[in-house]
């Protein structure tokens, strides 16, 4: 018994001859019949003894004692973004498997909002945070955050020196270039996306490097940075047409930008793929619906790995960043 006369988690673990972490995870699991932490027999023993001894868990007190709970905070660039929604599906699924639950908020890619949300989430004594809205031009936030001693990592977007789980976006850009080069095209437009996001920078870098190595001169490549949505794709496509004329092929760093650009081309009397080939990125369900060739990124797997790594970080493990490989899914928009 604890010094106050109440039954503690440590008391239960000692009586059952189990580790406190195992007992804690079983009792904190929302599915009491779950055997993911121990055998079904052991789970039943833990719950039976807890009931017999009138064990009562106080989540707030526990979080104050340990500065940690079984809650994980996730900050997304946008809750309307299909890509991050898919990533979050993976996070939530893995969180449940690991005995955590997650909450998600959107920073709208605004650093001040991210700072405010982070403070609010930390007030709830979370076990850790996953950030999906990192910007290459604002690394100072994470340097400051690291001093707080709370486990965290980045997902989807990377920053030098920060632990992250991403798609290998540079490789994805090269894959797109190699696919379009294989069609014999020699002039290219690039709907580059958001300039401050590593996803955009790395995909564009991989794409242009592959073209350069194939002998395509800079004068045959026009890239415009806007954002990742359909409206931005239209704007960037219009800019490319105004600056360089009609390219033979277009690479968009996001499927939605590619779809917006396709609409703009149609309004200008141009056809995909007859006049312009179009390749997107991420391979969202909408890409398949409109026969858009796209580089498939492992969105849900990124979420699963980021949550698994965060749980390992909370357990004190040393980890390295991971970049998961993409693949091309060829459809009608790039057929010769």
TrEMBL record:
Q: Does the keyword Zinc-finger apply?
A: no
> Which PROSITE patterns is this protein grouped with?
HTH_LACI_2 (PS50932)
Superkingdom is: Bacteria
Pfam families annotated for this entry?
Answer: LacI, Peripla_BP_3
Q: Name one GO molecular function term.
A: DNA binding
Q: Which InterPro entries match?
A: HTH_LacI, LacI/GalR-like_sensor, Lambda_DNA-bd_dom_sf, Peripla_BP_I
Domain HTH lacI-type, by residue range, is 7-66
Transcription among keywords: yes
UniProt keywords (A-Z) are: DNA-binding, Transcription, Transcription regulation
Show the Gene3D superfamilies listed in the entry.
3.40.50.2300, lambda repressor-like DNA-binding domains (1.10.260.40)
Q: Which PANTHER family match?
A: HTH-TYPE TRANSCRIPTIONAL REGULATOR GALS, LACI-RELATED TRANSCRIPTIONAL REPRESSOR
Q: What is this protein identified as? A: LacI family DNA-binding transcriptional regulator
**Organism of origin:** Leucobacter albus
């Amino acid at each position: 018994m604890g010094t106050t006369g109440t039954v503690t988690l440590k008391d239960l673990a000692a009586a059952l001859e189990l580790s406190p972490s195992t007992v804690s995870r079983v009792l904190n699991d929302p599915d009491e019949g779950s055997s993911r932490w121990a055998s079904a027999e052991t789970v039943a023993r833990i719950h039976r003894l807890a009931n017999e001894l009138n064990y009562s868990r106080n989540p707030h007190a526990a979080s104050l004692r340990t500065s940690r709970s079984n809650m994980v905070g996730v900050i997304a660039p946008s809750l309307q973004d299909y890509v991050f929604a898919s990533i979050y599906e993976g996070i939530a699924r893995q969180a449940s498997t690991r005995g955590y639950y997650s909450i998600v908020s959107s920073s709208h890619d605004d650093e001040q909002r991210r700072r405010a949300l982070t403070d609010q989430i930390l007030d709830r004594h979370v076990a850790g945070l996953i950030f999906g809205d990192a910007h290459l031009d604002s690394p100072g936030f994470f340097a400051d955050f690291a001093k707080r001693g709370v486990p965290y990592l980045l997902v989807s977007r990377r920053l030098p020196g920060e632990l992250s789980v991403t798609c290998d976006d540079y490789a994805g850009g090269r894959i797109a270039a190699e696919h379009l080069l294989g069609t014999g095209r020699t002039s290219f437009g690039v709907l580059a996306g958001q300039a401050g996001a590593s996803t955009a920078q790395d995909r564009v870098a991989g794409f242009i490097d592959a073209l350069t190595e194939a002998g395509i001169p800079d004068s045959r490549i026009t890239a415009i940075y806007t954002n990742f949505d359909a409206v931005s794709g239209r704007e960037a496509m219009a800019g490319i047409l105004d600056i360089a004329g009609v390219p033979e092929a277009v690479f968009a760093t996001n499927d939605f930008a590619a779809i917006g650009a396709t609409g703009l081309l149609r309004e200008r009397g141009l056809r995909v793929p007859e006049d312009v080939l179009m390749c997107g990125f991420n391979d969202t369900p909408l890409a398949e619906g409109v026969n858009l060739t796209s580089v498939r990124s492992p969105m849900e797997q990124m979420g699963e790995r980021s949550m698994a790594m965060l749980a390992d970080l909370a357990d004190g493990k040393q980890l390295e960043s991971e970049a998961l490989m993409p693949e091309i899914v060829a459809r009608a928009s790039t057929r010769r």
